[in-house]
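Hey, I'm writing a tutorial for new members on how sequence and structure tokens pair up, and I'd like a real worked example in the thread rather than a made-up one. If someone can provide the structure for the chain below, I'll link this post from the tutorial.
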Amino acid sequence: MSAPEAPKEKPCLPETYKVPAVWTFNEQGGNFGAMNRPTAGARFEEELRKGDHPYQLYSLGTPNGQKVTILLEELYDLKKTEYDAWFVNIMELKQFGSGFTEVNPNGKIPCMLDHSESPPLRLFESGSILLYIAEKEGHFIPKDARGRAECMNWLMWQMGAAPFLGGGFGHFFHYAPVKIEYAIDRYSMEVKRQLDVLDKHLSDKDFVCGADFTIADMAIFPWMKAIPNFYTGPPRGDDFLQFHSYLNVKKWIERIEARPAVQRGMRVNAFGPTAVKERHSAADFDATPP
């Protein structure tokens, strides 16, 4: 019996690249090259600032940060819940200060401290923060077992799907220092599949869990908005993916965008002339008109 043939060697990009027996770190380049390292932990000493309110949020106006500020602004409209939102400039690597990594050892925004608990309770990962606040405040999460389970289904769907949209499609389509056809095609296909999942689900309902706006909507919405807002090309990400052809998603986005709290939440810790760079009271929005 003859020995099986050795597998054919696959082509590499660039052509000179050969997969080594053991990986070693090299600076990646691109917009986020200085950010990425194979190790965790603080890179410098810097304490976190603290405001007057129990909820202290350390974040940036990216989709994961926007999830939390949307919820907090919705709670402000509902029951005047106040909070402090501190701007964390990830391009200046502020998420690797000792105070930040003490709250979030993963070194990613957003993270939060709840000073109504003693000692203060730390929160990291946007889905965990949404769930904690919604349960503590008693709003934007269904109270019945079936409704809560459906809300968790879609919250976890978003948490699992986001890396394909942001770290996959967004990175290789917009941020990577080199355009790789295979990578762009792979993640474009997956994002279009996710859009189709959401579009079909929304065919007979106003919000992800039915008639009520929940933390599931708050988690998914900013990432859907990232396609036209962050991946601006050329070509534009929304044109490339035919984003506007998903009509149920489009109507759902318009429905959510009409909410005043969502409009404010998208501005907190954000960029540009309408941004509220740091938010310490509702009056901060008056100083920066939309």
